[in-house]
Each structure stands twice: as structure tokens, then as C-alpha cells.
């Protein structure tokens, strides 16, 4: 089957900018208390649901969230479309397993995971393909499992052309929390928490964090 063009473009973009991206965001979490708090909350939720449960960060890049989740006691596996990003993630976090893969076809059995994190990683998927992504998240989550999403809020995409001088470009799609909440609910993952904060530092738009949970039968 021929790969969709947007996946090919996304992989090429992140392969090209992987080193500069990693250097730019290496210590960003240290300056983002809200992000740290949301990661800690998610870690608490998945460990409370099942202490030995497994979590995947989908679109993990160089592991800048995967590593901290591991440090919070979460059994986490990083998945990214970009082989170069996965290479850098393995180098930075040798204690964490990382794999090259797509959020459209996650390498996990049905109901295998207690948690899924998609941290600014659904933003390169065209709107008409997002239901497939949420269906895949729902497939791999066990009943009671938690999904965490982070994304920029807005209606117009940001187009990056030749970042870091590299000959690539890509659209970064901003999303409306209510629309993402609807997508999650339609996939069988009702949202349990929605948080939106105002822009900080160089950010141009509000940032959203959504938590959803796969229902437990009879719950």
C-alpha cells in the first residue's frame, strides 16, 4: 500500500531538522511548569490504574517527554515516524525503548496499553484522517486506560518553510479543543479533563491539554 504523502513529508521534515530540534528543545521542559504538572498528573493516573501497565508516547521525537515519564515511574515506549528522531531518542534515553512507527498502525495488541500520550503529534494529520488516529488510540488502550493530548489552539495552520536552513517545509495544524474532544468521544474515549492556558514566551497561540479515558465495562 502506498504511504500517504503527508506521512512521507512529515518524516522527511523531522529527519532533516532532528539535530537542531533536539538542541533547541533539550531543556524546554525545565521552563514549562504547566507541562511538567500535566505529565505528572498523567503519570499518576496511569500508575494508579495499573502500576505495571505500559504506556506509549506516539510522536515522541527525541524523547523529551518520554524520558521524564520514565523518570516518573511510567513503563513507557516511544514511537516516532522519523528514524533520525528515534536514533537521537535512543542515544539520549538508553533506558527507554523506542521504535520507528506510525500512529496509524501502532505496534501494540488490542487493549495492551494503560496509557497513550500524543504530545503535539496529531498536528500534522489532515482533519479527515484524524478519526483513524483516534480509533487506533482506542484500539490499543485497555479499559480504564488514559489518553493525553497536547496541541496549539486555533483555526489556521502555521506553515514552516526551511527551518534551521533545511530544504523542507511542513504545516503545523492548530486545533479547537471542542473538536478534539468530539473526536475522542466518537472513538470511545470520553474526555475527563480539558485545560487551556495562555501563550507563554515565544508562543503565538493558547495551548491545550486534554485527558480522556477508555470506559470500563459496567463502570
UniProtKB/TrEMBL annotation:
Say yes or no: keyword Transferase present. yes
Q: Coiled-coil segments, which residues?
A: none
Q: Which domain of life is it from?
A: Bacteria
Q: Which GO terms describe its molecular function?
A: methyltransferase activity
| CDD domains assigned | AdoMet_MTases (cd02440)
Instruction: Spell out the protein name for this chain.
Output: Class I SAM-dependent methyltransferase
Asked if the Swiss-Prot or TrEMBL record annotates the protein with the keyword Transferase, the reply is yes
